[in-house]
Amino acid sequence: MSDPNPGTEPIKAGAVGADALADAGSAEGSMISLRDVVKVYTLRDGTQVRALDGLTLNVPAGSIHGIVGTSGAGKSTLIRCLTALEPVTHGEVRVAGQDMTALRPRELREARRRIGMVFQHANLLDSRTTAQNIAYPLALAGVAKGERHETVAQMLDLVGLADRGGSYPSQLSGGQKQRVGIARALADQPAVLLCDEPTSALDPETTRSILDLIKDVRDRLGVTVVIITHEMSVVRQVCDSVSLLEAGRIVESGPIEEVVSDVDSRLSHELVPVPAIPDGSPAEGDAVIDVALTAHPGQPAAAHVLAIASEHGADVVGGVFETLGRAQVGRLALTVPAERAPGVVDALAAVGATAEVRS
Ligand SMILES: Nc1ncnc2c1ncn2[C@@H]1O[C@H](COP(=O)(O)OP(=O)(O)OP(=O)(O)O)[C@@H](O)[C@H]1O
């Protein structure tokens, strides 16, 4: 087990905080490894802003890792430090085996070719065709014309736009533009794809198709993906593991199924929120019990909970049941006459569910 914030007091120590980094991959064998990274900005008046505060993170090769955090948590700074666009104040940043903090300018340019970037908006060049947009970074990198042509055709095919190479950005939908952005990011065969809010500007259906594409690309090319997002639905749909960034530190982290199994963790609550209950509920004299359960294949838990609810005369007034990774996670809201609530909570605890009376 490793502390996600070595050398400092962990903010959240539970299973997610402590086990996570060991399970999310040790520094050895990781495609991305940040160790004790500190980034301090100094403002003109001399004020210091500690944007990253001892951040440690390991992302295993070939995985899709989500980073979530509120505004100002340090997400953009993290991306800039990962790509060495911003020097770190302290700590180590390794991408594809290279220490990004120790490279000379020429080596850094080469190292950056190993990192593809996808942004919220594809930022395509309007005066160039789809194919020319994808070829652009290859031309800058000095790739010969014939090879560029071949790569562009492969990339267009990969993102499902084989017949749109001659189209201009104005002739493409938002989702198609983002596909071109992904093709452009992958054209130079990066080892890592950094996606900064890649679906924030898209509708839910297009979001789904872009996330499916990212997953498909990972499966086919083996690229390691980091997705910065504020949308938990993105994490639910596509990520193998997730970290919660807060005030420049990773406060929770781990594979999705472990994170959601720790029902006390914030990520678990965010990924599978407590269900709403109908207006007028509970009735006079009833209590609401919030139940959280995790089941795995061969170890069912939901049936036990429902049997206990039925046995004690409780009603189910709200609920969600999600499959995330190999875990099935349930959140139920039960109503029961208040005097029976303690008995129901005890019975649920005995079958491994977490239950508490809603205040
Ligand atoms: N160039 C800079 N100079 C000074 N302070 C900065 C600079 N860039 C970021 N910060 C500060 O560092 C902290 C982290 O900012 P950052 O932009 O990394 O957060 P974020 O999680 O990306 O936020 P958002 O989601 O709003 O983009 C904030 O307090 C911000 O004000």
TrEMBL record:
Gene Ontology terms: cellular component: plasma membrane
Entry keyword annotation includes DNA-binding: no
Keywords in alphabetical order: Amino-acid transport, ATP-binding, Cell membrane, Membrane, Nucleotide-binding, Translocase, Transport
GO molecular-function term, one example from the UniProt record: ATP binding
Family annotation (Pfam families): ABC_tran (PF00005)
Classification via Gene3D superfamilies: P-loop containing nucleotide triphosphate hydrolases
Domain of life the protein comes from: Bacteria
GO biological process, one term: amino acid transport
Domain ABC transporter: 32-272
Oligomer and partners: Homodimer. Forms a membrane-associated complex with FtsX.
Family membership: Belongs to the ABC transporter superfamily.
Function according to Swiss-Prot or TrEMBL: Part of the ABC transporter FtsEX involved in cellular division. Has ATPase activity.
Official protein name in the record: Methionine ABC transporter ATP-binding protein
Species of provenance: Actinomyces gaoshouyii
